[in-house]
Amino acid sequence: MNVQNIVVAGKSGAGKQPRVDVLVQTYGLRQLATGNIFREYLGTFNKVRSDAKTDGLWTDGKFAADSAIRQALSPACAKAGVDVDAAMLGFKAAQYVDRGRFVPDEITNALLAAAFRAGSGKGFVLDGYPRTPDQSDFLLALAKDCGTRIDLVLIVDNDDESIVARTIGRRVCPNKTCAKVFHLEFKPPTPDGKCTTCGAAVVLRSDDTEEKIRTRLAEFQSKALPAIQRLSAAGIPTVSVPGNLPVFTDQAVKDSVLAVVQPALKG
């Protein structure tokens, strides 16, 4: 089956990762997650955050000129040995992530396009993108420009209160080569809080507080849901699976995903 790209959508914390894993393993795809891209750039900025002079670079929701941001970050970047442009993107993303808000389209699109083109525009499960109607339009144009397509949108459905409870219990492995995701109740790490794969101490993501989660849930209704509808209107098949299952096992997740995905892709 010639599957080129699949979008996995849903509220933040709905349970997308186990479904992404099924698609990656079944169809030989690679996960392209904007969240991971953001965290990489945020990590670069965090290396210089304490030393960087950022006062006045973000005022009333507007950034200073890029040249001013580079100039302000350059001394700290030189000291830490990090790329100033990467730190600048991390700084910009941080102003939104720290407030639990979506990163603006122009920043998100640029990061996504670079990674998408680097992979020849195919072989991806897109996770966390698109999240606005304009991002949907950008993705459709990007795929066309790359001579590829979006085959399917898979929505992981879950209610808000279940998501809040699930997300505040989420822990992740900070090791970039591992990045395994756990839940304190449903998929726990070791008893002493270590990753079961690499042994690193798992952590709570900075954006997994209840306040930030509820902000993201509100923005899903106003922005991400219309983005999904834009892809559907463009003729891309859209199917959904429940985020909660009566029995939550790897096999149950796989069966529920393939039960809706396989018929849609054959169609």
Q: Could you explain the architecture of this structure?
A:
Helix content is 49%, strand content 13%. With 267 residues, the chain is α/β, with parallel strands linked by helices. The protein has a domain at 5-30 and 143-266: Rossmann fold (3-Layer(aba) Sandwich), CATH 3.40.50. The strands form 3 sheets. It has a 5-stranded parallel β-sheet with strand order 2-5-1-6-9, with helices on both faces. The protein has a two-stranded antiparallel sheet with strand order 3-4. A two-stranded antiparallel ribbon has the order 7-8. The mean pLDDT is 90.
Give the gist of this structure:
The chain is of the alpha/beta class. The chain has 9 helices and 9 strands.
Main sheet strand line-up: 2-5-1-6-9
Please name the fourth-level CATH homologous superfamily of the domain at 5-30 and 143-266. P-loop containing nucleotide triphosphate hydrolases
CATH topology of the domain at 5-30 and 143-266: Rossmann fold
Shape: globular
What class would the helix/strand composition place it in? Answer: alpha/beta
Could you give a short account of the major beta sheet? Answer: 5 strands, parallel
Summarize model confidence as the mean pLDDT: 90
What's the oligomerization state? single chain
**Which CATH-level-2 architecture of the domain at 5-30 and 143-266?**
3-Layer(aba) Sandwich
The proportion of residues forming helix, as a percent range, comes to: 40-55%
* SSE string: EHEHEEHHHEHEHEEHEH
